[in-house]
Amino acid sequence: MPGSMVATLSGGDAGASTLRRERLGTARAVSLAVLVASVVAGAGLGRKPLSWDEAVSLSAAQHRLSGLAALLAHTDAPLGAYYLLLHGWLALGRLLGQPPVESWVRLPSLVGAVVAVGCIVALAARYVGPPAAAVAGVLLAVHPTFVFYAQDARPYGLATAAIAAATVLFVRALDRPSPGRLASYAGVAVLAVALHLFAALALLAHAVVAVRRGRPAGRWVLTAMAVAIAVTPLVLVSARQTAEVSWIPPASPRAVASVLTHLYGGPLVLAALLAVVVAVLATRYGPHRAAVPVGDPPTGRWTGLRSMLPTLRASPVAGVPRLPRTGPARPPVAPWSVPIVVALLPPVLLVAADLLRPVLVARYALVALPATVLAVTGAAVRGGRVARAMLAVALVAAVGTTAVQQLRPYKYENFRAATDAVTDTARPGDGMLFLPLSSRVGYLAYAGRDRDGHLPADPLLRRAPRLADRIGGREVAARLVPARVHAARRIFLYGTDLAALSARPGPSSAPKVRAVAGWRVRWIRHFGAVSVALLTPPRPATPPATSAPVSQPDPPADR
Q1: What are the pLDDT digits (tens) for 381-416?
Q2: What are phi and psi of 522, to 5 degrees?
Q3: Which of 163, 224, 323, 437 is the Cys-Cys partner for 202 at CB 3.0 to 4.6 Å?
Q4: Within 10 A of 16 (CB to CB), how many other CB atoms are there?
Q5: C-beta separation of 447 from 419 below 8 A
Q6: Residue 526 in 3-state DSSP?
Q7: Is 181 in a helix, a strand, or coil?
């Protein structure tokens, strides 16, 4: 056999062996991170009571399909796909004899979080190799914000998983934009937006990277058009439903700082992550900066991004090979532009949109968190000893913050304890008033679980939340409220911030507040953001004492 052929075969065997080792290492890294995510987020999955948002999810998912469509026509259209998924999940539970307890309702979010961790580790392995990818996956798995929404019966965990999967498919499509790969990416992208509308922020980040890399225009434009056409009906319906975000405060520097701090895991974790970035910049620009790696110097408008992570340029492990292209030359974009842009652009766009209409909520940018963890981990791994030490500090801070978070007895509202307070003290003839009426879904999530207690009547309920097209159900007309309330021996007020609602009641609460005006408050108890008060009717006024009438002699009879 000629020597050149032997060398070729031996080189091929070595390459195949290296590829097998890399795949095995990636599989081990994914398994480790997925195991950590399952243990951390799965521990105590059903311990905390449902929050109000979660109770709304449960109530909506318990509708019949026709009722769910009617509900979504009035409110929560952007969450329709998640409610439909949860509806099927609860139906599966009924077939298995599984009641809709907290752990079962939250399990889809946990599965989504585990998928997101697996996707981000698989993606990270392309950039920094399996060992560092495992570090990124573990950091994400113990990140307090990520764990919180992994244990939340809302769509944010699933949407984050969909964006993580879409990012993996996007990188593969950058590698080779075949119709199959682009179709897979488009399908997952549509699913992500259907689960949560603000997932589109991450897709815009993908579009920026694709444009800057000069991908073949035709296929990418068709892919973008297909995604846009698929999500347009949802966007149009959602644009008419603005009440769901009316509670968000106006934009302010304090609000931006608070939201970003919450998004990145609290002050300790955020400080450690920023310290990693500072250490990398110091390594690059400080007096003892590292030498620039061998390769072409960064050029074009992406110089700033590439110089922040100078050691993370394309490599046989990390690189996404550039395809030959025709047309005008474009500035080269490092493959690290994918996680960097996906990490930075969604929060920036959210803050910018908040200037037009208040939408700044941390969970709306949660889809950027996995890419943030990947970018910071990659920078730390190749950014010097100090950066790696700061990454270890971030990991410890994340574990500590998550542990404290897990020990809290509830999230925002403790509907479980509030409902127990009602059923433990209720008597026959008692009634319930909900301020506001939407708090009824939190009460109904737990009412009836304890068969030993007594359930007060709900005198104002006309149509139950599970059957109505409004969150909290439909109540009787305002003119009927006084008679219904006064027929009860005692009244439980149940809701959020009863004092404020009593002082400044809304249109639906005002008739209830007037109906109990003058009633005596026997006690009031607070369970997080929800309160319960027991009211009794005023004592009837005692009539004033009157002197006995003076008797008058009978007139003499006529003779």
Answers
A1: 888 899 999 999 999 999 999 999 999 999 999 999
A2: -80, -40
A3: 163
A4: 10
A5: yes
A6: strand
A7: helix
User: 69 in helix, strand or coil?
Assistant: helix
Residues 333, 345: Cα–Cα separation, whole Å: 16
Q: What dihedral angle (degrees, nearest 10) is formed by the CA atoms of 123, 127, 128, 133?
A: -10
**378 neighbors 132 (Cβ within 8 angstroms):** yes
The amino acid that residue 75 corresponds to is T
Going by C-alpha positions, the residue among 453, 454, 457 that lies closest to residue 431 is 457
Whole-structure pTM value: 0.85
Distance CA 416, CA 431 (A): 19
pLDDT of amino acid 17: 76
Q: Is the peptide bond before 436 cis (omega within 30 degrees of 0)?
A: yes
DSSP classification of residue 246: T
DSSP state of 449: S
C-alpha–C-alpha distance, residues 146 and 139, integer Å: 10
* Residues paired with 433 in a beta bridge: 493
| DSSP-assigned letter for residue 429 | T
Closest CA to 395 of 276, 490, 534: 276
pLDDT at residue 333, rounded to an integer: 44
Tell me whether residue 526 is exposed, middle or buried, using C-beta atoms within 10 angstroms of its C-beta: 0 to 12, 13 to 18, 19 or more: middle
What does the chain come to in residues? 559
Indicate the domain borders of the chain: 3-320+332-407, 415-536
Burial of 451 (0-12, 13-18, 19+ CB in 10 A): exposed
**Residues in Cβ contact with 93 at an 8 Å cutoff, skipping those fewer than 6 apart:** 99, 100, 104
The string of pLDDT tens digits covering residues 277-296 is 999 888 877 665 554 443 33
Contact 409, 434 (CB under 8 A): no
In whole angstroms, what is the distance from residue 282 CA to residue 270 CA? 18
Whether residue 216 has a cis bond before it, omega within 30° of 0: no
Which residue matches tokens 């009978």? 554
**Residue 60 CA from chain centroid, whole number:** 17
Cβ(417)–Cβ(532) under 8 Å? no
